[in-house]
Design brief:
three-stranded mixed β-sheet, 3 strands, GMP Synthetase, Chain A, domain 3, alpha+beta
Length: about 120
């Protein structure tokens, strides 16, 4: 990502987040968070990253596909860009990866505590 694009990416993320929150009535898009947007250098397209509950991934993706024209149209009205970028929606799996890592670390902590308790008691594992 180019340094000069950060401001554009942030501006697009804020506009899209507000549109999803206030202007899109699809209930499948409730409780969805826009985590980031990467706008191409020529502003022809924007990759929009989002999170939602794991059991809703398919429904949320379908809702974004159905609403992307509407979101793009509203985005064009709010931004002073020559063209509104084509929107491509992607699940941001970093939250899931972080939760998985957290569970693993917690399990490892419990395993280590059990090992230390057994060692202190003179048991062999």
């Amino acid at each position: 990502m180019k340094e000069g694009n950060r401001k554009v990416d942030q501006q697009a993320r804020e506009v899209i987040s507000n549109i999803v929150l206030f202007d899109v009535s699809d209930p499948r898009l409730q409780m969805v968070t826009i985590t980031g947007v990467n706008v191409s250098f020529d502003r022809a397209y924007a990759d929009v990253f989002y999170t939602a509950e794991p059991e809703r991934y398919a429904a949320v993706q379908a809702a974004f596909e159905a609403a992307k024209g509407h979101i793009r149209s509203l985005m064009a009205k709010q931004l002073a860009w020559k063209q509104a970028p084509e929107l491509r929606f992607h699940l941001d799996d970093t939250v899931d990866a972080a939760e998985k890592l957290g569970r693993y670390l917690e399990q490892e902590k419990v395993r280590q505590a059990t090992f230390e308790e057994a060692a202190d008691a003179g048991e062999e594992l």
